[in-house]
Design brief:
This protein is an alpha+beta fold. 39% of the residues lie in helices and 19% in strands. The chain is built from 5 helices and 7 strands; from the N terminus they run H-H-E-E-E-E-E-E-E-H-H-H. Helix 1 packs across helix 3, helix 2 packs across helix 3 and helix 3 packs antiparallel against helix 4. It is elongated, with a radius of gyration of 21 Å.
């Protein structure tokens, strides 16, 4: 069974629907039609809501123009495979949440732009994925819960038992679990100690 059909079957099962979709791409059942309607919307929302390691890419970006306007020193082309920019990488070895490189997303006649004052910029971003073989199990489960939330009113006659709301809560729980898993799989570089701390040693 194709992964998109598997996700849709998980989603409708969260809503108590006993039917099994055989092929979500071609089937004309109401369940398949509703899942097709919300599938891409839910997929992109889940990718944006959390920087999933399997969908994270770091890349240099193409310079478009120096001094493009009075506010920014550089404009760069927004990557074609980018769904969501997470951050511009600075030259410091450890750029923290409190010390981020400023940027702004805009566009010109050729597409989206990234304005920043960072020379030779690299960005960390979430891929607009097309390779479903790289998707992890925790993502699939989270995705199915969010799809269930979107589909609930149409598949449960207005969702009188609030199954969609329950699916949304389960979605947030899966996102929290994925964050915990990702933290355990990375080693963040320690920040330098302050002069105050060094002076006490």
């Amino acid at each position: 069974m194709a992964l998109n059909t598997e996700v849709c079957n998980l989603a409708i099962s969260h809503l108590g629907v006993a039917k099994t979709i055989i092929d979500v791409e071609t089937e004309q059942s109401i369940e398949a039609k509703i899942c097709r309607r919300f599938y891409e919307l839910a997929l992109k929302a889940v990718l944006r809501d959390y920087p999933w390691p399997f969908a994270t890419k770091i890349s240099s970006i193409a310079l478009v123009e120096n001094n493009p306007n009075d506010d920014w020193e550089f404009s760069y082309r927004y990557p074609s495979d980018c769904l969501h920019v997470r951050r511009i990488l600075g030259q410091a070895a450890n750029v923290t949440i409190d010390v981020r490189v400023p940027y702004k997303i805009s566009r010109d006649g050729s597409g989206r732009l990234i304005y920043t004052n960072q020379p030779d910029a690299q960005i960390e971003y979430t891929l607009d994925i097309s390779d479903y073989t790289i998707i992890t199990g925790d993502f699939i489960l989270a995705f199915s819960f969010l799809l269930a939330h979107y589909a609930a009113p149409a598949l449960t006659n207005g969702d009188p038992f609030k199954l969609g709301d329950r699916a949304k809560l389960n979605y947030y729980e899966e996102i929290s679990s994925a964050k915990a898993t990702a933290v355990n799989e990375e080693q963040v570089e320690a920040l330098p100690e302050s002069e105050y701390v060094r002076g006490r040693l």
